[in-house]
Amino acid sequence: MKIISVVGARPNFMKIAPFIRAINNYNKTSSSTQNHITHILVHTGQHYDDRMSKQFFEDLHIPEVDYNLGVGSGSHAEQVGKTMIEFEKILRIEKPDWVVVVGDVNATLACSVTAKKENIKCCHIEAGLRSGDMSMPEEINRMVTDRLSDLLLTPDHISSENLRLEGVPEQRIRFVGNIMIDTLEANRHKASSISLKDIADRNALGNQCFPTELQDENYTLMTLHRPSNVDNQEVFSSLVHFLTQEVTHDMPLFWPIHPRAKKQLEIFDLWQEVESSKNLILLHPLDYNDMLRLNMGAKILLTDSGGLQEECTIIGTPCLTLRWNTERPITLQENGGVSVLVGNNIERIKAEYRKILNKPRTPFRPELWDGKAAERCLDAILYYNYF
Ligand code: UD1
Questions:
Q1: CA of 46, closest atom in ligand 1
Q2: Which pLDDT score, from 0 to 100, does residue 178 have?
Q3: What radius of gyration, in Å, describes the C-alpha atoms of the chain?
Q4: At what angle do helices 288-297 and 306-315 cross, to 10 degrees?
Q5: I need a surface site. Which of 34, 105, 224, 299 has the fewest CB within 10 A?
């Protein structure tokens, strides 16, 4: 069997790493050469900075890619269009049995469409997530990919139910659990040994003076990259004022900055304010283990990332999700998780921040978020014809 799996942007790397490991383990233990799986890894090149891409390959022991499509930055149509043109060439050379796509980035959409147009079976890992928000490019990517894919592997029952409600036949849906948690469990021990000061020193952005006392359970961690937060001047300015005038007065704030957020801070003339703020620790985008370590010790996480919401659920860090909706409702407080949706209204954010300031860490493990999802993903592909 020949499988091509696809990555494009940062959140894909932690999902593909355990899947490739599961293939390697299968090949090692499989008795006959007839059953051998040939695996080919394609990177669309949407994320290309070392800190957004290469570093993750090293940290997570992902093998070198077989093809890099070099798509780079651009509008959505440019990224999707270029990926389709280049990916089609590869499919015609390699003629795989399966294309495996993960998550909801532009690579996920572009490669699932191209695979189906070439009449190749497509498997979507992390299927069935729905925010109901069509202004999110990721929602469009999820819907199209799920509509086309032959095998839809879901992380939870809510996602499986979403697919059923859209009329997806039962034999295409498999509940396998959350593959990202495989990566979290594989790295947890290693991450716990990293010191906070080391993270600050190795990843410092600019020439700031960092607070000398950095202690677990006494800092906030924040990440922001969604257009709804960083592309709107009024929203982004009031968020930045809240950080520099309130949060950093309570405790140090670690902020690893996504390239999009950094660009917008400069455009909106906010860079000076964040750079000169005492207690605000500005960092480059972090590698997987540094981010996991910060999450493990943070008192509060402020984020608009979907993946971090899930990691907080397992680690238990109280999380304010700076969005009005989520495609991951299982992570919300009302469903047993730790995350609260606060949108981008500053008064609401402030009120919820005060509320969770003294909340204890409360880990929650949804069904099959057990570190073994990758094996179930591979089994679903291997036994596809038997269902
Ligand atoms: C993409 C994904 C999003 C994911 C996020 C995680 C889509 C539709 N969006 O959004 O789902 O949560 O990645 O990071 O696929 N840039 C760099 N260096 C890089 C990559 C990007 O400087 O290595 C710059 C680009 O030039 C652009 C900005 O960052 O200005 C945004 O990059 P882009 O890949 O378009 O989307 P993300 O916002 O990262």
A1: 34
A2: 98
A3: 21
A4: 50
A5: 34
